[in-house]
Amino acid sequence: MMSSVKYKVVLVTIVTFLILTTGAFIFQIYRKSAQYEAQISELSAQLDLIQENMGLIERSVLHKTTEITNRVETVFSQQRKNIENVRLLLDDVKILRPKDWLLAEVHYLVRLTEKKLFFEHDVISAIRLMESADQRIAALDDLGLVFLREAISDDILKLKQVSPIDRHSLVLSLINLQKKVDNLPLINYTLLSDALESKETALQDTKGWQSHLKTSLKDFLKIFFTFKTYSGDSIPLLSRQTHIYVKENIKSKIETAINSVYAQQNEIYITSLNVVAKWSLISFEQQDSAVMEFNKLLDELTEQSLLFEYPEKLQTSNIISDVVADRFYTPISVKDNQ
């Protein structure tokens, strides 16, 4: 009996322990499950927030991408239009004005003309250069450049009205005049050889000893004294060395006149030749034919003036500059930008 009761007590104890253990286990499982559910809910909320943010980011990226794509397409479209306009302009140049490069040559010729005219005072070369420029314009066969040809024609006409000086011919004449100086006879000078020749002629004369004596005396005196008549102011006699200096001074003054021709110094030119004329009058035998020819040429050269008037500016200069700037340097305008 007692064994049966103990058995039951033990059995009840075991069952109770099992029930308590099972309850505790179930309670732990329930508590853990609640914690897991809370964590899952929290993670689910975070996931929803992340998904929402991702959606915002995706929409923002899509908007930016669309905006950038539109801008790129706009720029590409603009560039295609620009390229097309440039191609059309190049086609126009090739088809309508294939010889416009001649304008650059005309521009250079006009600039060279100004240099020849204003710096070198070479009117003849300036006229030839302007005529060459006119030929280049004619080769263009462009009715739009008629006003340019008219300006060139006006400038050529003004240049032809200028009386140019042939400087090379003038210099050659001065050099020729300079070479004549050494052969001109001087006043108040007789060479010793001339006196000896007169003496020999007298000794050969057969008119008697009185004539020989008289002639010898005259020739002897001529060696030391020379008598010549001269109408005008009294001029001191000059030694042979002084005469040589006079000739060199005259040639030096002519050389100064030559240099003044190239330098376009009219006052120095006239002054130098006037000094030469004065020295010629007091130093050379004026009745000698060579001296007379020398003085005649000197007078002609003295009357030549180095001064001449030429246009202060070529009207073609500004016109050709504007035409070249318009055709070569004007920025290309793009059509249909909008």
TrEMBL record:
Q: Which GO terms describe its molecular function?
A: methyltransferase activity
Keyword field: Methyltransferase, Transferase
Q: Which domain of life is it from?
A: Bacteria
Which Gene Ontology BP terms does the record give? methylation
Tell me the leader sequence span.
Answer: none
PANTHER family on file? PROTEIN HEMX
Q: What is this protein called?
A: Uroporphyrinogen-III C-methyltransferase
